[in-house]
Structures are given as C-alpha cells and as structure tokens.
Amino acid sequence: MAETEEFFQSRKFVLNQYQIVKAYMVFGGVPFYLEQMEREKSIDQNIDNLLFNRDGALVNEFSNLYEALYTNPQNYIEIIKALSTKNKGLSRYELLDLLKLKSGGTLSTLLEDLELSGFIRKYHSIGKKQRNVLYQLTDAYSLFYFNFLEKKPVVSNDWLNALDSPKNRSWSGYAFEMVCLQHTDQIKHALGISGIQTHVYAWQTHHEKKNIQIDLLIDRKDQTINLFEIKYSSETYTITTKYLNELLEKVALFKHYSKTKKAVHLSMMTTYGLTKNEHSGMMLNDLNMKHLFVSLE
C-alpha cells in the first residue's frame, strides 16, 4: 500500500487513502494496471473505463494474463475459477473432486505454480495439522474478474451504476480482507509486536448449524492471540448491540473449540476506524486503513 500511494503521488494523482485502497482491491498494486489510469478521473471512473468499456485497455486482460504465464492456461484458470466460488478457500481434496482430476500429483504442481505466482495462498486453521491446508484465491484482479466480468457483456457505466449494489458490497468486504491479509506485517507493527514471534492463522467451525469464521488470528509468543474482525466501510464503523453480542459469542466459541489458554484480544481493522459509542471500548485494538500504508523498509 505504501508503494502504491507513492506511485500515485509520483504521477500527480489527487487521491485519498480510501480511494487508493479501492484501486488496490481491484488491481492489486500491479504497476502495469495502475499505469493505465488517468489522473483526471476518479478511481471508479478508471475502473469503469478500463474494464467495462469495449475499448478499455484491460478488457481482455484475464485471458492475456494466464496465456502469457502458463503453457496450458486452462488448467490454471479452472483452479482459480473453483477457488473464486468459496471465499474461505478449498481443500486439496475438494479441488480434486470439483475439477474431476485423477492425479493428485498434477494438482500439486498446478497449485504450487499458482502459489509461487502470487495468485493463491495456502493456510491452515489454528490447531489444525498441515494436511488440513486450504487454498484461497488472493489475486485481486482475478477475484474481481470472476465477480463482475466473467459472464457479463462489456457495458459502459456498468460499474458506476452499481456502486452500492449488494454484490458490490459483498465483493468489497472480501477484497478488503485480502488486502489486510497481505499486510499483516503492517498490522503487527501497529500492534507494537513486530519483535514478537507470531503465527498468522484463520479459524472456522460449525456450531448449531452456523458457520463461525475468523479470517485473521495473530497467535503470539507472549501468550496472547489477536482475534481480528475486518470491516470495509465508507465511514467510521458502528458496533451495534447485536453485532457486539455476535463478536462475544465468536470469542467464546473460539476459546471453547480451540482450547487455548492464551488471552484473546478482540481487535478491529476497518477503513476509517470505529464510531465511539458504548460498545467500541470492548475492542482492545482499533486499527484502520492508515496502518496499512506504513512503509517498513
């Protein structure tokens, strides 16, 4: 994020950090994509112009991208497409079943290539063994493509006319989570724990027919775990009584099922921080997008 901000500043763009975050959520900080933007247009105008205009510079980028990288791109695209259907990711066995592959060795090679290329990440839940690893789509552009571009004809202003649609809100929440997961070093710096040994996990379980999921856990050597909720919003985020109760239940279930003896710090990462009310004080850490822009070099 720090480099992306510096890039825009060097090209005399007038943007706030919220707009830069959105650009990163779509283009992932890839210089070639960012170079196509015009500084007299807003971020959303640029997205619409580059991806939803028949003459847009990036209209055919998806096929061009994978064909340039891989000899048999369709095999890789099928994996990416499958992963795009499940935000939490899929296990190796789920992928084998979905893709109807007979050879686990073939899949292993494809997954390794995608991970080395930065399209996916593999992770496992805290307390789970390595064989329970999940694979998750993390490439911003591919995620955007399968949400908005794969099955739709190119229509100008399509993006601008649906900025507040449910689908847009769903995508933006998950895309912001991915940005945060790619900046865990900055998050640890903001917590003041850069010098402490840590492991970053996710966690999920089923409880009374509900899927309970935590997207970011920072397990610390100092007997502490930061349990992060990540929320994308165009203004400060307000914790309601209902939401607070959900968070407290999530903490209780995590302690119960993980059997951790460590202190669990309920933490928030949002775009603009929390609205101060009677519930906000329950968050031991209130981080916002400005912490993602810190350069650690």
Describe the structure concisely for a colleague:
The protein has 297 residues and is of the alpha/beta class. The protein has three domains: 2-59 and 154-178, no CATH class; 62-143, Winged helix-like DNA-binding domain superfamily/Winged helix DNA-binding domain (Arc Repressor Mutant, subunit A); 186-293, Trna Endonuclease, Chain: A, domain 1 (3-Layer(aba) Sandwich), CATH 3.40.1350. The protein is built from twelve helices and eight strands.
Describe what this molecule looks like in 3D.
The protein is α/β, with parallel strands linked by helices and 297 residues long. The chain folds into three domains: 83 residues, no CATH class; 82 residues, Arc Repressor Mutant, subunit A; 108 residues, Trna Endonuclease, Chain: A, domain 1, CATH 3.40.1350. It has twelve helices and eight strands. Strands 4-5-6-7-8 form a five-stranded mixed β-sheet, sandwiched between helices. Strands 1-3-2 form a three-stranded antiparallel β-sheet. Helix 12 links the parallel strand 6 and strand 7. The radius of gyration is 20 Å and the shape is globular. The two termini are 13 Å apart. The mean pLDDT is 92.
